[in-house]
Amino acid sequence: MVIDVITIFPQMVKEIIKESILKRAQQKNIVKINVHNLRDFALDKHSVVDDYSYGGGAGMVLKPEPIFRAVEKIVGKRKKKGKTRIILLTPQGQTFNQAKAKELSQEEHLLFICGHYEGVDERVRENLITDEVSIGDYVLTGGELAAMVIIDSVVRILPGVLNKKESFENDSFYQGLLDYPHYTRPRRFRRKSVPNLLLSGNHARIRKWRRQKALRNTLNKRPDLLEKIALSGEDQKILEELKRKKVKTATTRLVFKSANR
Ligand code: ADE
Q: What is the CATH architecture of 188-259?
């Protein structure tokens, strides 16, 4: 995969991609990440990339010409044209999630345009990009951090990036559920023990326990996710049991509360 990033803060991006999994993925030649300074594509000698908003009002807008020039140069260099996802980072975009990470991980070439100030000239949006993506309903100073979030989550699921120990099949969201709880040594810490079942060596029971806990975590923390996935009959049974227990404990608490009033 080739990833290009167009930004007015190239150093911000370069610092992040030289660490951890992103570093390793580049060393293994699984991904090539190129960072481009938008100012290098400005038309004037002062490298101006922004200007006032027509119609008035506060805030600057990124000019169209440097962005068009940068994109055309990057895409023009490629042999296979028309195969690039050109992604604008903006709070107006489709909210990023694991499904989108998986979708993007199947592409050959991603090109990120990091927005800034009040945004970018609308002609960029209308004529150049294939995707508008947001990483959540809040406003960042610029698209760099958002691009890095997306690049990190896409690159880590490319084949060969993670080793077996780090595999992502059990990640939260990968199967539409949150992850199950994890424990490591020591077996007993400040009088708190690791659940015995995890030490039993009984893999079938451990698998079942983990599925139950993943379902419980999702039900308690993100019940909205359960509506989006296909659950097996066994999963549904576990969930009904969990819901019944929850109602029971909630009712018990209520009774207890009113008895003590
Ligand atoms: N730029 C500013 N805020 C953003 C957000 N939430 N997601 C993506 N890009 C942004």
A: Orthogonal Bundle (1.10)
